[in-house]
Design brief:
This protein is mostly helical and 788 residues long. The protein is 63% helix and 9% strand. A 3-stranded antiparallel beta sheet has the order 4-3-9. Strands 10-11-12 form a 3-stranded antiparallel beta sheet. A 3-stranded antiparallel beta sheet has the order 13-15-14. Helix 1 packs across helix 5, helix 6 packs antiparallel against helix 7 and helix 6 packs antiparallel against helix 9. The protein is flat, with a radius of gyration of 56 Å.
């Protein structure tokens, strides 16, 4: 049973990390919820059981993530490791983290700590089995995760300014309805409408698209929050002690997020920082007040030191009836309230509070600042009222109750335990609200811390780049401030920061008064008191010298008293202030340095004499070997020079002859090239002259032919002119003969015959002229070809 319980306690960690951790800007495995783990033991010290309580799960991460951040690990692990069979079972097909709004909002999908999501999921499945969650329950859990992924991709359409509806054509709608066991009409009615009860009569009103989308986000956050509670309860049920085991004691481990200060801080950061303020107050009470009790127990005379008390901040946040959380709770009760009305109330209520700041610019943007113990943080009021309500509409609860999926109905019962459905703000009293619930939980945590002996573990991140051995001072200083460690160090340095038991103090500093203590026989406390009295004056003189150099006249005029030195002897310890400790160490170091110098002088003298003798022997041997070595080097140098000179001469002569050969070869090649070039150019010139002569001869022949053709053409033109003149004469004669036409018909016929013959001759002449033109064209063509 003990081994089984230990294994289950160990295996609960990867389960809670998968469902409650996420990558943030500074941490790749940041816990986005607080938890208190109680380990229960029997009288013999064996572990018999454990219980886990969780606080402030950051459900808003489901609907929005900042740059360089991821959603909860489980979604990426589930998608990265799902097999083909599981994808078919959970209706994921080939979708990845880049395909869902819930996982791709920030554009960041991997982890910088080299953790593999697929391997992490395998470890998660093994852990769920070991913790007692069966295969059927695992299938229900993974089905719900798939449904949440698909819900993030649902879209709503505006029917008009006052109405909306769920888009039926959305490709993820069928998967949501199947995995959650719902009907479309029921889902559409629950998201896009709400009912009002007036005088025992119910009226249904439609919601615009923006409010319907808020309802869809609230439904997703409520389902995931209920799933997380279900897993924690299942873990607790399987780690509960058996009825035969009797609890004898317990160890509680509280793990909450550290102080947060981002570029944009909202309601989640206020709750986390409020939790850290409460723990800081406990730290002040348990550690700093314990210091005072020890001084009182030892009989030390101490002066009160003012240290940072954060009671003003706690009253500002959680004071009953007047704190920020109380005002927010009252605002949520009133119908029709908004972030603006809440902002107006706190601006009026805390305008003169020393820890509350709100400039005109901040008021215009609905923002305010709180001066925490770690510094001032600016908060954005947007979403405060809605996030504090964290309620599920009545229609949403009824929708889940109507599901055919028994696991969804089981989660619905968890949702309605603390968040009863409401329709108006007047019924908000039934829902305590996130801030009010956190105040109650923190009050319980305070009681537990007061009833136990607490120990604090501060975790610091050395750098923001996840590199080993790289310490960034500014980052570490901020973490020290946020953790309240710097305040603790400041107070510790102002009080008695160093303390020794009597025997330890006497053993460490007796050299400062060795002569006075040599023959003194007394108790350890009496010896320490005498030692303190002897060294106090030495310290006072050093303080006077230091203050004179620094110009501190007040300390210079102070009279000597042991108490003024900052050194007191208690019942079992000697207490020193930090400055006194430094002076005491200086005096002790000065004596030690004197003794060390004497010892060094003796030892170094003896060592120097031995080294001198060894060095003289070594010098003689070294000279002998050096001279022999130099002689050998000279001989070898002469031989090397002769061999090198011969080699240089041979190389130089070979290089000279080679250069001559190359020069002659170059001249011969140059001469040949020039001669062959001249010969080729002469041949080319001769060919050009021959071609030129042929062209001129052809040109003369063509010109002669052209001249003859032109002469014949001229003759033809003269003949044609004569014929024209004769024709003209004939026409004149014809005119004369026309009058005698009747009488001279025979003469006319003869003349017509002659005229026909003349026309025939004219035709022949035109034919000859055409042939002459053709020959001229051919001659011109030949001349053109010859020129080409």
């Amino acid at each position: 049973r003990a081994v089984n319980i230990e294994m289950r306690v160990v295996q609960s960690s990867p389960i809670l990390e998968s469902f409650g951790n996420a990558r943030t800007f500074l941490n790749d495995n940041s816990s986005r919820f607080g938890k208190f783990v109680e380990l229960q033991f029997k009288e013999n010290g064996s572990l018999i059981g454990a219980a886990i309580e969780t606080y402030l799960l950051e459900k808003v991460r489901l609907v929005s993530q900042s740059r360089d951040e991821r959603n909860f690990h489980i979604f990426y692990e589930f998608l990265a490791s799902a097999t083909a069979e599981e994808r078919k079972k959970y209706l994921l097909d080939e979708l990845t983290a880049k395909d869902f709004t819930m996982t791709c909002g920030s554009g960041t999908f991997d982890r910088r700590d080299n953790a593999d999501d697929s391997e992490q999921f395998d470890e998660l499945v093994d852990a769920l089995g070991l913790i007692g969650i069966g295969n059927n329950d695992m299938e229900y859990i993974f089905s719900l995760l798939s449904a949440l992924l698909h819900i993030s991709n649902l879209t709503l359409l505006s029917v008009n300014d006052e109405e909306s509806k769920v888009e039926q054509e959305n490709e993820h709608l069928d998967q949501v309805l199947t995995l959650l066991g719902l009907e479309y009409d029921a889902l559409d009615a629950a998201l896009t409408s709400f009912s009002i009860q007036i005088r025992n009569q119910e009226y249904v009103r439609k919601l615009p698209k923006e409010k319907a989308e808020k309802g869809l986000e609230a439904l997703a956050k409520a389902l995931y929050g209920a799933l997380f509670k279900y897993i924690v309860r299942t873990i607790n049920d399987n780690m509960r002690p058996s009825s035969t085991d009797k609890k004898a004691g317990s160890i509680g481990m509280l793990d909450v997020a550290g102080f947060e200060h981002f570029e944009r801080n909202s309601f989640e950061q206020l709750c986390i920082n409020y939790c850290n303020e409460v723990l800081q107050q406990q730290f002040i009470k348990l550690v700093f007040l314990a210091e005072q009790r020890e001084y009182q127990r030892e009989g030390i005379d101490y002066s009160e030191v003012v240290f940072g008390d954060n009671k003003e901040v706690l009253d500002l946040i959680d004071k009953k009836g007047h704190g920020i959380i109380a005002i927010l709770h009252d605002q949520c009760k009133v119908p029709g309230t908004s972030d603006r009305t809440f902002a107006t109330n706190i601006y009026q209520q805390f305008q003169s509070h020393p820890r509350f700041k709100a400039s005109r610019k901040q008021k215009a943007n609905q923002m305010f600042s709180i001066v925490h113990y770690a510094g001032s943080v600016e908060y954005d009021i947007t979403g405060f009222v809605e996030k504090n309500k964290d309620e599920v509409p009545k229609e949403g609860s009824q929708l889940l109750e109507s599901s055919s999926n028994p696991f969804v109905r089981k989660l619905c019962a968890i949702i309605t335990e603390h968040h009863k459905p409401t329709t108006t703000g007047a019924k908000f009293a039934q829902n305590r609200g996130v801030g009010h619930e956190l105040t109650t939980q923190l009050r319980d945590i305070r009681d537990r811390i007061d009833a136990t002996q607490p120990h604090y573990i501060r975790c610091f991140k050395p750098n923001s780049d996840l590199r080993p051995g790289d310490f960034q001072p500014a980052l570490i200083a901020n973490q020290l401030r946020y953790a309240g460690v710097l305040e603790a160090l400041r107070v510790s340095r102002n009080w008695f920061s160093h303390r020794y038991k009597h025997a330890e103090f006497y053993e460490r500093y007796y050299q400062l008064a060795k002569d006075e203590l040599k023959d003194f026989n007394g108790s350890e406390r009496e010896k320490c008191q005498l030692l303190v009295n002897m060294v106090a004056f030495q310290i006072w003189e050093l303080m006077q010298e230091t203050d004179a150099v620094e110009g501190d006249d007040e300390s210079k005029n102070m009279s000597f008293r042991v108490d003024n030195v900052g050194l007191q002897v208690g019942k079992t310890k000697v207490f020193l202030r930090h400055k006194t400790f430094e002076y005491l160490e200086y005096l002790r170091g000065r004596i030690i340095v004197n003794h060390v110098n004497k010892i060094n002088a003796l030892l170094r003298g003896r060592i120097a004499r031995k080294q001198y003798k060894k060095r003289m022997t070594a010098v003689m041997s070294a000279q002998t070997y050096a001279r022999r070595f130099i002689a050998v080097l000279k001989a070898k140098s002469i031989l090397r020079r002769n061999a090198a000179a011969t080699k240089i001469q041979k190389t130089w002569r070979g290089g000279r002859d080679l250069a001559r050969y190359k020069l002659i070869k170059l001249l011969v090649a140059w001469t040949q090239a020039h001669f062959r070039g001249w010969e080729g150019r002469e041949q080319f010139r001769q060919l050009q002259e021959d071609q030129k002569k042929r062209k001129e001869e052809q040109k003369q022949i063509l010109q002669e032919k052209q001249r003859k053709l032109e002469e014949e053409q001229r003759k033809l033109q003269e003949k044609q002119k004569k014929l024209e003149e004769e024709q003209k004469k004939m026409e004149e004669e014809q005119k004369k003969v026309e009058e005698e036409q009747r009488k001279l018909e025979e003469e006319k016929k003869q003349m017509e015959e002659e005229q026909r013959k003349a026309e025939e001759e004219q035709r022949k002449m035109e034919e000859e002229q055409r042939k002459a033109e053709e020959e001229q064209r051919k001659a011109e063509e030949e001349q053109r070809k010859a020129e080409e």
